[in-house]
Design brief:
By secondary structure, this protein is of the alpha+beta class. The protein starts with 8 loop residues before the first helix and ends in a 12-residue tail after the last strand. Helix content is about 20%, strand content about 30%. The strands form 7 sheets. The protein has a 7-stranded mixed sheet, sandwiched between helices. Strands 3-12-5-10 form a 4-stranded antiparallel sheet, with no helix packed on it.
């Protein structure tokens, strides 16, 4: 059974009684699969990732401005190696009104019903006097900087309905280079240890660099683990939060629109039931997170989404951890969600397992067993198909227990495999 987090029960009970706080749970993953509650304060009130609605590439949004001075803000995350960012902006008269003079411009012009304008700025919200681009129609930005771009739709006159759509094109070189970051943590610095995440990491590493029909280049695979490097077939360092996030950023800075990126995590997971956020626990995590985006050894669902929002490449995220089903955001809220596929061992609320008989996390074992036994380790096998077949694989089902795998597919109309050039 996968052990999740240790707490000093007596202290927690006393604090809970004294402070009368709400009690979110984090699972200890005992042999009886019990869930134990601890008391923590609300962690945060501000989420900088989604301070404004995030535009998803290729999806049209609409809005209504009620009159002069009314405005809406949006945000779009531009990946590395983006060739063009296009913002398609259109305004409808609603309701129709007589010809009116717009007097907000230096050269007054007559407009029918309303006069809306789009303002765009990198890094911070624009105003009508501080912006990088503005237009009453479409804007095309060549070679935009990676990061957050803010859009304001502003009514200089009148009311009405508008539509807005963001699209992006990415640099390509005609070669599908594949990258992988594999994290497996068995021996934690502070919290309870696990048994087999290092084996999970080894199995994933060996599978993609040796066993599949078109192996990855070993130079493009990074493996991070605990403080026992001799337990790993390849070892690039301790799996601290900083090391993991820096590795992601480094890989995404290289990957272009032709490429594919794999991120595998096996280790502890944490769920903040009060605020409904999930976390994966790096080697240096403590007893509870100190903030949604704090450097505290916990990688939140928001942090992981924000890390992968900079990917021009296709991304496969595989999470074998308790509460990992809370990591839907990369494939549901990111601007580049159509590039991302996430599969998890279980739901946001539930725990997952590892077994001595297979010396693996159950989810890792089931997925890799299905890939080999049913799909013959074919690199061109679709990951969505492997996922579905795993659910009905008897080799997985016999160890599954209460595990409830989840899939979050940002582009269900286009399947993803790990084949490359």
């Amino acid at each position: 059974m996968r052990i999740r987090i240790i707490v000093y029960i007596i202290i927690v009970v006393l604090l809970s009684i004294t402070l009368h706080t709400s009690i979110p749970y984090i699972s200890l993953g005992t042999e009886k699969n019990e869930k134990v509650s601890i008391s923590i304060d609300p962690l945060y009130t501000v989420n900088s990732y989604s301070d404004y609605p995030i535009l998803k590439f290729g999806e049209t949004v609409g809005g209504y401005l009620s009159g002069t001075g009314d405005h809406d803000y949006y945000k779009v995350y531009v990946p590395y190696n983006t060739k063009t960012l296009t913002l398609n902006f259109d305004v409808l008269d609603y309701p129709p009104s007589p010809w009116s003079l717009n007097n907000s411009e230096s050269n007054p012009t007559w407009y029918w019903g309303n006069y809306f304008k789009m303002y765009v700025k990198y890094g911070s919200p624009p105003t009508t006097s501080s912006y990088d681009y503005s237009s009453t129609g479409d804007i095309v930005i060549s070679n935009p900087a990676a990061g957050p771009w803010y859009i304001m739709i502003y009514s200089h006159y009148g009311s009405g309905i508008y539509t807005l759509k963001a699209t992006a094109t990415f640099e390509t070189d005609g070669v599908t280079t594949r990258y992988a970051i594999i994290v497996g943590i068995a021996d934690y610095e502070i919290v309870y240890d696990l048994q087999y995440p290092d084996d999970d990491a080894n199995d994933w590493y060996y599978r993609i660099t040796t066993e599949i029909s078109n192996p990855f280049n070993d130079n493009n695979v990074w493996v991070y683990g605990d403080n026992h490097p001799g337990n790993y077939l390849k070892y690039n360092g301790l799996a601290t939060e900083s090391a993991i996030t820096q590795a992601i950023d480094y890989v995404l800075s290289m990957a272009d629109g032709d490429d594919k990126v794999v991120f595998v995590f096996s280790g502890h997971g944490f769920y903040d039931s009060a605020n409904k956020y999930s976390y994966i626990c790096a080697w240096d995590c403590g007893w509870s997170p100190s903030g949604l985006e704090a450097l505290d050894g916990f990688i939140s669902d928001i942090e992981l989404a924000k890390a992968f929002c900079y990917s021009a490449a296709k991304v496969f995220i595989f999470l074998d951890a308790c509460h990992s089903g809370g990591f839907s955001e990369p494939a549901t809220t990111n601007s580049n969600k159509k590039n991302i596929l996430v599969v998890t061992a279980t739901t946001a609320e539930d725990t997952t397992n590892e077994r001595d008989t297979i010396q693996n996390g159950v989810w890792t074992y089931g997925f890799l067993d299905t890939w080999s036994d049913i799909y013959n380790n074919d690199a061109s096998a679709y990951l969505e198909d492997i996922y579905q077949s795993t659910l009905t694989n008897p080799d997985y089902q016999q160890y599954q227990g209460d595990d409830d795998p989840q899939i979050f597919d940002g582009n269900p109309n286009q399947k993803l495999n790990l084949n490359g050039s």
